[in-house]
Design goal:
Elements (H helix, E strand, L loop, with lengths): L1 H39 L1
């Protein structure tokens, strides 16, 4: 049973890492869009 709990913890860590990377990418995308909008307008 220790293997399954370890796998579950690893999966939770991967999900958290994915959310962090996604949020960072979203912030960069929003900043880029805002900059293009301000420069274009």
């Amino acid at each position: 049973m220790t293997g399954s709990t370890r796998q579950q913890e690893q999966r939770r860590a991967n999900v958290r890492l994915g959310l962090i990377l996604a949020s960072v990418a979203l912030i960069f995308a929003l900043g880029f869009i805002a900059r293009m909008w301000l420069v274009g307008g």
